[in-house]
Amino acid sequence: MRTIIFILRKEFLQILRNKAMIPIIIFLPLVQLLILAHAVTYEIKNINFAVIDLDKTKYSRELISKFSQNKYFTLKDNFDNVELAFDGFKKNEFKLIINIPNNFEKDYLISGKTKLQLLINAEDMSAAGIIYNYTSNIIQQFNGEILIENPKISDFTQEPIIEVTFSNWFNPELNYKTYMVPGILVILVSLIGIFLTSMNITREKELGTIEQINVTPIKKYQFIFGKLFPFWIIGIVELAFGMTAGIIIFNIPLLGNPLLIFLIAAIYLVVVLSIGLFISTITHTQQQAMFIAWFFMMLFVLLGGVFTPVEYMPQWAKVIAFFNPIAHFTRVIRMIMLKGSGFEDVAQTIYILIIYGVVTSTLSVWLYRKRG
Amino acid sequence: MKRFLGFVKKEFYHIFRDYRTLLILFGMPVVQILVFGFAITTEIKDANIAFLDLSKDNVTEEISNKIISSGYFILQQNLESVEQIEKEFKKGTIKEVIIFEPEFARKLEKEHKANIQIIADASDPNLANMLINYTTSIIKNYQKEFKKYSDDLPFIESEVKMIYNPELKSVFMFVPGLMAVILLLISALMTSVSITREKEFGTMEVLLVSPLNPFQIIIGKVIPYILIAFIDAGIILYLARFVFEMPFEGSLILLILQCVLYVITALSLGIFISSLTNNQQIAMMLSLAALMLPTVLLSGYIFPVENMPLLLQLLSNFIPARWFIIIVKSIMLKNSDFSYIWEETLILLGMCAVFILVSVKRFKIRLE
Questions:
Q1: Residue A306 CB: number of other CB atoms within 10 A?
Q2: Among A190, A211, B157, B248, which residue's Cβ finds the most Cβ atoms within 10 Å?
Q3: Is the backbone of residue B71 left (phi > 0), alpha (psi -120 to 50) or beta?
Q4: Per-residue DSSP letters for B137-168?
Q5: How far away is chain A from the Cα of B147, in angstroms, using its nearest Cα?
Q6: Could you read off the pLDDT of B24-77 as tens digits, one per residue?
Q7: Using the beta-carbon criterion (under 8 Å), do B115 and A163 form an inter-chain contact?
Q8: Which of A58, A109, A169, A196 to mutate to test the interface with B (most CBs of B within 10 A)?
């Protein structure tokens, strides 16, 4: 026990004495949280568009003004032909071209059918999808309005209607930050765990100071415990810090029990720190350690449902997500904070994380060699 | 010159002997592009949903079957009461509940109106929105079949063309960003770490007393990374072109020149960072925090810049990757020639000049 206390003291002293590391450990995550939460958004609030109106009738003008009056759309330009308008696409001046052909109104009044063309810049496919949704909604509305004006249609109200109503639970305003902040917290905690641990041990290897520890009578488990425990504490403190910031700055709800979150975080950190330890056993230099840590982090985050939900992914990616600790922690922290899920709801995930914790820590302790 | 070549050779040995880092350096772009290409889509597949059918007649059954057979949803369970909904949401087993009101079919026939309520778990707002949209449009389609005259109603048909990416593939969007990130990672992060490494070990001193002049040392250090950066860019472009069929419309030479400009900018950034510290860990954290994160988040790589708050949009102007991504997209997808991208190129050139100046000024020939 005394040995552990000594090594702990050494580690804490080493971390706290490094003046440049402390701001990195404390302020960086906060700044990241602030910037990330604002940057990570798929919401689209402003769509610049251009119009090619070859018809120039009452209908075409009405339709265009329906767009320009909508709060999401801004009319940027008018063109006479498609080639000229395409130039604006290339210059990134607008994302949507509404092309209204000749006889737009006439065709509608005579045959009841008319066409217009929507050209969407789909470089960014998710934005293109949203633009299309907004646009077709407006055209639908316009359709409905001119239909009522149309005197020929009388029996159309007699049609049976299936009315669809919907409600969004837990986040009725569909605020994206509410969803992202817990995910970002998970990234921050994991970053600290994986990067700092793996680099801390490889640093001793690289500088040769690990030899000095290896010749002492300290036991393997004591050394590893002494190395990991400070980062475990930093991780927990960071989480508490970040959660408070999220609640105060972004008004993120905390419906569930915060102690449950910390319980899960405590287990989760064991998994993450063991992965960091594992990386340090297979690498020799800090550069290698950092690269491998970066590689794993990136895969875990991308496939873990932090930015794009696991629901969007194909089956094989869902299988991978099952073995991804970040995916589990992200899911339950969101469940507890945003939905108020209780212990029974997340029990299964806790058991899975405990199994991961036991497996990864035994493996990495076993793999660690007290030799040079 | 011979001395210099010898030094470059030493650097190459350094890098190529470290097969772990090398594996990651070449494996990373491959894995990332495969993940982006195959795993990250914006189309819902197999979302778990539940029905709460308070009517249980043939119409509700027909609608339920239509929804399930669409392929977007998997029926997780049939609920019996409204109270169950919150419990199931809290367990996280389902994402959406579709409720049919009692006597659905009878109401539809007698009163010409019946109600379906959709409740989505909006703790993920985007997903909730998508699920509701998908479900609504399936129900609307069903209703169209139901209507007798709907075909005769006048309406405006809109023909949609998705320009530059007709199949809405996510790879098209991610490839330029991925190039920007990987090139920066190798050029800025690797150089800054490898120079601080020599400082931390004290071997920089050995290099500085050698007959090589300091600028030769820096250039020698940088050359292998330039090579690796270009091989990686080649791998990304090759996979994008031949595995994901991303179009390559514009001039290859223009693209290569732009990559050179961007790589030089990134390298000078890396040298600048290495002049700030003697500690590898700090160099790494600085590179990650000050270069990698903004590049991933504020450059339009994953999240469109136009939608960010004004302050972040202003900030993004100072990130080289933002301009580089616009340039790559313009060349690859839009077949733009130089006249469309000269402004972005000029901005990059300006940044490059500033960073080179600053890092040359900060670089110390002597050790303190």
A1: 23
A2: A190
A3: left
A4: HHHHHHHHHH-SSGGGS-EEEEEEEEES-TT-
A5: 6
A6: 888 888 888 888 778 776 677 788 999 999 988 888 998 999 999 988 898 988
A7: yes
A8: A169
Handedness of CA A312, A313, A318, A322 (dihedral sign): negative
Answer whether B159 sits within 8 Å of A142, measured CB to CB.
no
pTM of the model: 0.81
**Chain B closest-CA separation from residue A96 CA (Å):** 10
For B279-298, how does the pLDDT look when each residue is reduced to its tens digit (9 = 90+)? Answer: 887 888 778 777 877 888 88
Closest Cα in chain A to B341:
A91
- CA dist A252 and A259 (Å) reads 17
Q: Is residue A321 packed enough to be buried (19+ CB in 10 Å), middle (13-18) or exposed (0-12)?
A: buried
Distance CA A211, CA A370 (A): 9
Nearest to B124 among A43, A179, A199 (CB): A179
Domain definitions of chain B by residue range? 47-163, 169-367
Residue type, A319: V
- For residues A335-362, average pLDDT: 92
**For chain A, first and last CA: distance in Å?**
25
What pLDDT digit, counting tens, does each position of A150-198 carry? 666 555 555 667 777 888 888 888 788 888 899 989 988 898 888 888 8
Entry field: residues in chain B: 368
Residue B206 Cα, gap to closest chain A Cα (Å): 17
Beta bridge partners of A97: A50, A119
- d(CA B246, CA A264) in angstroms, rounded, equals 43
Place of tokens 């950092």: A290
- Count other C-beta atoms under 10 Å from residue A278's C-beta: 22
CATH of A47-156, one of 3.40.1710.10, 3.40.605.10, 3.60.15.10, 3.40.50.2000: 3.40.1710.10
The string of DSSP letters for A154-212 reads -GGGGS-EEEEEEEEES-TT--HHHHHHHHHHHHHHHHIIIIIHHHHHHHHHHHTHHHH
A130's tokens = 């949203």
* Contacts of B282 by beta carbon, 8 Å cutoff, 6+ apart: A20, A21, A24, B196
Q: Looking at chain A, which residues constitute the CATH 3.40.1710.10 domain(s)?
A: 47-156
The dihedrals phi and psi of A199, each to the nearest 5 degrees, come to -75, -30
Contact A287 B21 (CB under 8 A): yes
Q: Contact, A94 vs A50, CB < 8 A?
A: yes
Residue B7 to residue B213: CA distance in whole angstroms: 11
Quote the CA–CA distance of B70 and B128 in Å, as a whole number: 17
- Which of A138-142, B283-287, B351-355 shows the highest mean pLDDT? B351-355
CATH for the stretch B47-163: 3.40.1710.10
Burial class of B245 by CB neighbour count within 10 A (0 to 12, 13 to 18, 19+): exposed
Within 8 A of A155 by CB-CB distance, chain B residues are 149
Chain B residues whose CB is inside 8 A of the A38 CB are: 308-309, 312
CB contact under 8 A, B170 and A28: no
DSSP B56-98: -SHHHHHHHHHHHHTSSEEEEEE--STHHHHHHHHHTS-SEEE
Q: Which chain A residues contact residue B279 at CB under 8 A? A: 18, 20
